Amino acid sequence: MIKQALLEAIGNLLAARQRSALALIGIMVGAGAVIAMLTVGAIAREQTARQFRAMGTDILLLRADSDTGLGQLPLAETEALVGQVPGLASIAPFMLSGGPVSAEGQARSTTFLAATETLAAVARVRVAEGRFLSRHDRFEPFAVIGPQLAENLSTPYSRIRTGSSIRVGRYVFTVIGVLEPSLPSPMMPADLNDVLIVSIPNGRRIMSQASLAWAVARSTPEADPEAVGRAVAASLQPLMREQRLSVQSARALLAGLASQMRLFTLLLGAVGAIALVLGGVGVMNIMLVSVQERRREIGVRLAIGATRWNIQSLFLTEAAVLSFIGGAFGILLGVAGAWGFAQFSGWPFVLSMSAIPLGAGVSIATGLFFGFYPAVIASRLDPIVALRTE
Amino acid sequence: MLELTEITKSFRTGPAETVVLRDLSLRLEAGELCSIMGGSGSGKSTLMNIIGLLDRPSSGSYRIAGEDVLAAPPDKQSALRNRLIGFVFQSFFLLPRLNAWRNAALPLMYRGTPEAEARRRACAMLERVGLADRMEHMPAQLSGGQKQRVAIARALVGQPKVLLADEPTGALDPKVAQEIMDLFLEVNREFGVLALIITHDPDIAAQCPRQLRLGGGRIAEDIRRA
To answer: Which residue in chain A is spatially nearest to B102 when comparing CA positions?
Structure first.
């Protein structure tokens, strides 16, 4: 009986090829949208996770604010916190500003970051060529630049590299290192790909508003980063009078992002679900036409002993076959769409293992749900009326 | 065998009530072959629908082989139809996407007979009606007479008590019509099934041992050939 039901369903769908194809496309696009959206969500989640993995979850970002703008961290006292605050592994205060730089007649706007040599270790900055700043050359006109800035200032005739000169206002800096390309970090207020890093004394010269307002810190592996953050703030606050000190921990940010990501994935899923509902309405439409066209057949089946349930399952089987095949194609479409998105965004493609069974299950459920009403209509036909249909 | 007692059927159309069958009583025995004639509006179709368990009378009682078939709730009617009645229609009503044996086996499939068994019995019945070499043919590949033979095989495959034929020769040319009529005479004798043939054609009616004529919502004439 099941075999015959399937054969009949496929035969009937093939007999109305054009209509079946339309319903199939509806379900396929719907299922594809659900799967693509969920996979895109997974890709975005993975990308965020990668950023945090590169940066570590034990990182803290401090920022001082005064009533008039950015605040001022006491440099020596801040650096002295390592050893005083239990669980604090390292800390690197820095200043942040921006402005134009030029080299060989090329002018660009970039971010200025003035820091001590500890920044490299705390922010996990890696140098591709040359070296980072050291504590012996605080007063030397040395700069370390991001790879993007190096490329922006290069011309086909002269590449900016270690030893090149860069002019900032009245000052000329010698490039002593170029950083490795890195993922933009949600915990760093500056993109380290496009940055000019100088020592703090040099920073005071080139920055119009030289505020040592920022610091990155790392907690020791066994310490709770948020507790360390609170302890750091408690130690510094008495020295900073009117200023406010805010501490952001990667872990808290990650938790916030995770809930945002959930919302994002839900939203994308909802977009897919709307597409799927439209596909389902297509199935319903086509099944209703099919019921109308096959009234006499339904009458004959009822006359020779089909029960209402037999008639219902006849049409439900067709809806199930449609949505099963549509769902299968939808999986291919959705995965291909998500792959295209990954290629376009440059983010690594990850296949969410839950997306495929979820998308397929939801598409079959939709097909059955929307096939149910036409099937009930068919099964409630009066055999006398149905047989009289021309 | 088949016993209709004081059957009344009326339809309400707007304020007026139309009485189609009025206190109709009829008794038919197993193995009878009986024609039913009557002008349009005489209640032929309504009577056939009631006998075929497709419709219920407004009042009266109906028994097949002693079983009160009106007592069954509507959702059991299909099982009763499947077991007791075999239908043959004027325009055959084969399912176009099933081949001959699958069409003939359909009542058995709805009864839950395993496919191999249903196929064996359908093929045996198709052989009996003279279609041994047409088992796998689709309805579109069959002539009108062959289609009606498949329909007769389908009606008989479940060994019903009543074979109910509505203008079974109406769509066929006279020569083929006579062949189909001969087949009815044969299977009626061979299977002992009570066969009721509704027809407009006096030649067809005249070949039946018993001839009924409907008029005014009752049996107007009941002729038994000696």
So the answer is: A4
